Amino acid sequence: MPDNEQMQSFLTELRRGSLTLAVLGCLKEPHYGYALLQTLQSKGIDIEANTLYPLLRRLDGQGLLNSDWDTSESRPRKYYTVSEKGKTIYRELLTEWERMQQSIATICGKDGGK
Amino acid sequence: MNPLIDRYVYDITRRLPENERDEVGKELKSNIYDMLSDDPDEGEIEAVLYKLGAPAALAEQYRQKPRYLISPAYYDEYVRILKLVLPLVGIVVLAIGMIIGAVDAAKAQTTGLGELAAGVFMEGISMGISAAFQALAWTTIGFAIAERVGVKESGRKPEWKLEDLPELPVNDGRNKIPLSDSITELVVTIVFTILGALLCLRLIPYAMYFSNGDVHAIHIFTDSFLSRCIPAIAIMGLGGVVECILKMQTRKWTPLVGIVSIARYLVTLGVMLYLVNQSNVFTTDFMAFFQSIELGGVSWLQYPRADGTYVLVTIYTVILIVTTAIECGKILYKTIRCKK
Description:
The complex is a heterodimer. By secondary structure, chain A is of the alpha+beta class. Chain A is built from four helices and three strands. In chain A, strand 2 and strand 3 form a beta hairpin. Chain A is globular. Chain B is an all-alpha fold. Chain B is about 70% helix and about 0% strand. In chain B, strands 1-2 form a two-stranded antiparallel ribbon. In chain B, helix 1 runs antiparallel to helix 2 (about 20-35) and helix 5 packs parallel to helix 7 (about 180-200). The chains are: A alpha+beta, B mainly alpha. At the A-B interface, helix 2 and helix 3 of A face helix 2 and helix 4 of B.
């Protein structure tokens, strides 16, 4: 029986790459940090604020996102959208994701119900 | 702006590289306020901060380049300790080296004063420098190990409480007087005061040597001048110690610290001016030596002017007044900036 901590670390590892894909997918529409968190969570993605915010900053720093401070409202908010470079990477990741999903299905498909 | 949120954000940004602090801080604050209702109570704020988790862990996530010998999380502490340890180790070992050099010279039955002095100082300085480098190396290795061990531990979720968050610094840190600076200043003041007192009491050899085929030893200052120096050194040393202790207690450029520092500079200036303008400062031996050496034709340096004053004394007086004025100006500026 694996302990809880071990289970968590496996899950985190499995999700890590797909989070980038989910974030890039969502950011076809501009979002600010907390709105993106809510959108992701409403679509069933299990992500915490303390994972998402640093991830946004990292993707922004790597040039996958465009970001802008909107100061027109009472509090400034930083809005993110996916950049051209981000779009290219997003498409490649998505292709890879679909390919892997099929592979996993053929390998583990018969275990699906269990 | 809620102080708890400010402290939380500060506890994260202080662990990040300096050029990222402002931007990450702005982002975090914006995100945290988005997660709260319009008029949040303390309980709601606490819940959101606990949800975001330990500042150390979040800072770790934000760090874009985690490969450091010593990361920003430890760097301040590293520099603070080096500033404290290097001068202390250097000075203490310098003194030990000089004693060893003196013992060696005594064993070798060195008679020439020049040779003796050279041996003592060479031994002291070389031991002092190598000890300082050793201290630097070992401190760095210690921090590098702490860094590696610390990184491993941060994989687990560290326990933390809101009460652990540090207070915000009063200013941005520029107005503080670092404790390590004051301690270094205190050590240097005490060492030089004791050295000066020993010199004046003729308890350690005090002479000037020059080789002209032979080794000669001459005293530079007259006994009557040296006896007047003792109270002067005591006044300056005491003033320095009082100032250092005050700085260590307040650690800020408060008006009191400013006034005491300026007063000490003015007293030192007064004492120094009194001393350099004494008559009968140099021994006749030294005057004869000074006038015998070649100074590249600038003979006006060597002889008194018509009114009996020396050009060197005038130059020294001007330098003293100018440097004191500059130091007092700096202190005034720091004190005023701190008050803002």
